[in-house]
Write a structure and sequence with these properties.
about 400 residues, alpha/beta, 10-stranded mixed beta sheet, two-stranded antiparallel sheet, about 40% helix, elongated
């Protein structure tokens, strides 16, 4: 009872880690069928498991939709600030504690965006398939991370099990030839920004006069035929086709679109609702169109939420399997205001048993360390020399 009274947060967190296992989430879901894939899984390196409380938390923050990210940050800033201000002590001490709470959230955001860390990778037993990313960026894009090179992008993909990736910078043709020195194969593509829509062109392409496709929706739809003339595939990107053209999707098909993104890891793309995804899947299936997942990596964040297991010799709706993290797929269906609670809960439900053991081990070690008696009259410290099991001064 004394331990419970002195360390309620640690014990409550340990209980949540255990209880959440009663409602587990699979590591991956097929975004088309909604079922776990039978021939693919996530490999978790040793360091990822050893640092599971940190790596799981940063992954959960990476896979937030924009609105949910804003709500989560705002909620926790208020909670931590209030915790600091309401605890006993002088006003300067209270203000410092509140500022530390805000600082913790700022550090977490920065760590999520740029901190190097171990990541999971996809492994598949389908030897005939290629693990592919259909949509990624370098510093050549206007919103790409500065100095985020083609080599950086290739290493980012290789660490997560990709075997190839299309480089689709905004309105910039990919012309580098780096296959010989790259850990994966990088394929040419481009993401054209036209009238209220981004269109990903896959395979070698030539430049276009974007103004001629940017006047209105009929003008934009002509881009699909132009890309076919160049020998490229045209994929409608998220979130634009749903935000701006959801009433025009039949016209997309009639104009020759080759496929639709159904999962996109960018914060705005993660807000895609599951019912909307089903509607697009029905449309794509009826017309035998390709459906894809996109990391939409711009150099920010270390983890992807989606992989494509594709068969190069096949075409159409069944040619590609979109495998995604359940945490990412749920973003469009969860109210933004619940994010401060629902995102941690979803994270805990998605833990593997090895990750749960890591969490419980860290909780036990930290709790036992903090439970050691201090020297009489001495404030808490981080060093082991600040502790005394006797409670007496030497």
């Amino acid at each position: 009872m004394s331990l419970l009274r002195r360390h309620p947060i640690a014990l409550a967190l340990g209980a949540l880690v255990v209880v959440s296992a009663l409602w587990p989430l699979p590591p991956l879901l097929d975004a088309v069928t909604g079922a776990p894939p039978g021939d693919a899984d996530l490999a978790r390196p040793f360091l990822y498991l050893a640092e599971a409380p940190l790596t799981n938390l940063l992954d959960a923050l990476t896979f937030l939709s924009l609105a949910r990210a804003q709500a989560l940050l705002a909620t926790w800033v208020v909670v931590l600030s209030a915790w600091g201000l309401l605890r006993p002590g002088s006003w300067p001490d209270r203000v410092i504690r509140a500022a530390i709470g805000v600082g913790v959230m700022i550090v977490l955001v920065a760590a999520t965006l740029v901190l190097p860390r171990p990541v999971v990778s996809l492994v598949t037993t389908d030897s005939a398939a290629v693990v592919l990313d259909y949509h990624a960026h370098t510093a050549a894009s206007h919103d790409g991370r500065k100095h985020w090179t083609v080599a950086d992008l290739a290493e980012w993909h290789a660490a997560q099990g990709f075997q190839a990736a299309y480089v689709t910078d905004h309105n910039v043709l990919f012309t580098d030839r780096v296959e010989g020195s790259s850990p994966i194969r990088l394929l040419p593509g481009v993401e054209w920004s036209v009238y209220r829509q981004h269109v990903v062109a896959l395979s070698p392409a030539t430049g276009i006069v974007r103004d001629s496709f940017s006047r209105d929706t009929p003008a934009m739809l002509r881009l699909f035929a132009e890309l076919h003339r160049q020998g490229a595939l045209a994929i409608a990107s998220l979130p634009e086709y749903w935000d701006h053209h959801r009433e025009d999707l039949d016209a997309f098909v009639a104009a020759g679109v080759d496929g639709f993104e159904i999962v996109n890891c960018a914060p705005k793309g993660l807000a895609f609702p599951s019912q909307a995804r089903r509607d697009v899947l029905d449309l794509a299936a009826a017309h035998d169109l390709l459906v894809t997942g996109a990391s939409d990596n711009h150099g920010w964040g270390k983890a992807t939420c989606v992989w494509n297991v594709t068969h190069p010799a096949e075409h159409g709706f069944k040619a590609n399997h979109v495998l995604a993290r359940p945490l990412a797929l749920s973003q469009g269906d969860r109210p933004a205001w619940t994010a401060a609670v629902s995102q941690p809960w979803l994270m805990l439900r998605g833990l593997s048993w090895s990750e749960r053991v890591s969490w419980l081990t860290w909780i036990a070690v930290v709790t036992l360390y903090l439970a050691q008696p201090r020297r009489q009259g001495q404030a808490a410290g981080l060093g082991i020399l600040a502790r005394s099991v006797t409670g007496r001064r030497p």
